[in-house]
């Protein structure tokens, strides 16, 4: 995610180490984030325990050879440093082998205590003979981030070994209290393992929910695109194909009719692409309107007012021109041979209004059958799908018809 420079208003990319530390290119970004945060927190724990256990380390040092205390500290601090450092790498594939190494390092450290033990016991049995027993569940918590079942088995092994060494250092033998201490340790640490498990499952559920949302959104978008394309084809078939077929008469066809049919085929075959322009000038809008009106009939007048220099969306131009063309074809087919018609266009910077007015025989809008596509699809429907578009048809029998088309910039 880029950052924004408030002074310049420009975005600049985050440094690579920041992206690796706080962002994820994983297919499961939330689970990835939970694992990273968990690994850092536990890594700090492995480093911090020797610091807060200095008194216990010094108290238990006389029970072992001199080499064991520094080695045990190294086997605690080392994995913690490696864990924290690894979280700045991409992905989390490294976490499983590191979690295993962390657990092996802990068990190795506790196991070497038996080798280093000199057979003596603590003067005060209530003291700590094995300082590593205090975090016997930490390696299993790291494993819980990636391998829950292995984490439970690892907890049983590490807790058992740690408490057995603790018993030998305190009493010189394993007493009947050992099972109770081991079970208590398992129950206590099990609470934290459950928290880690819930956190990872929550992260995974969030990722699954996001993925399902994306799939649903993609499906809805695809269905919407198919519906829009279907409506586009319906309008083209009605406005261009059927209109061309209805205009066919016996004898040699009009050259303009052939051009109209070719244009209809081209429009059906055209696939909107990313290279298509998004806007057009008002000059192109006027040219398209005059050309479309002339394609229907050269006897229609087009009056233009307010030719203010501005740019307009291509989708607006397409919708307005097609709706106007359908209104003019309706005049030719239904208004009567003596009907006169004019197209009045008013431009503004953020709007375009048009009126197609005729003095023909008119009709009753309420009597139009629901299955007729001309007004419902090619005029009202086309403008309704256009953001900021509106269309209204007014007519009375014997009083002519007015089709009002309006577009306002959203």
What can you see in these coordinates?
- This protein folds into two domains: 211 residues, no CATH class; 137 residues, Histidine kinase-like ATPase, C-terminal domain (Heat Shock Protein 90).
- The N terminus is likely disordered.
- α5 packs parallel to α7, α6 packs antiparallel against α7 and α10 packs parallel to α11.
- The chain has 410 residues and is of the alpha+beta class.
- The protein is rod-shaped.
- The strands form three sheets. It has a five-stranded mixed sheet with strand order 4-6-7-9-8, covered by helices on one side. Strands 1-2 form a two-stranded antiparallel sheet.
- The two termini are 29 Å apart.
- The protein is 59% helix and 11% strand.
- The protein contains twelve helices and nine strands.
Can you lay out the helices and strands and say which pair or pack?
Elements: E1 3-4, E2 11-12, H1 16-22, H2 29-52, H3 54-60, H4 68-86, H5 95-116, H6 138-144, H7 148-171, H8 178-246, H9 255-269, E3 279-281, H10 282-296, E4 301-305, E5 311-313, H11 314-334, E6 341-348, E7 351-358, H12 373-385, E8 389-395, E9 401-408
Parallel strand pairs: 4-6
Antiparallel strand pairs: 1-2, 3-5, 6-7, 7-9, 8-9
Short précis:
The chain is of the alpha+beta class.
What is the strand tally?
Answer: 9
User: How many angstroms does the end-to-end distance come to?
Assistant: 29 Å
Name the strands of the widest sheet in spatial order. Answer: 4-6-7-9-8
Shape: rod-shaped
Put simply, the count of helices is: 12
Strand proportion: 5-15%
User: Structural class of the helices, strands and pairings?
Assistant: alpha+beta
Low-confidence stretches: 1-11, 16-25
What level of helicity do the residues show? Answer: 55-70%
Main beta-sheet strand count, sense and barrel state? 5 strands, mixed
H/E topology pattern: EEHHHHHHHHHEHEEHEEHEE
Whole-number mean pLDDT: 81
The total tally of domains equals: 2
Radius of gyration over C-alpha positions, nearest whole angstrom: 40 Å
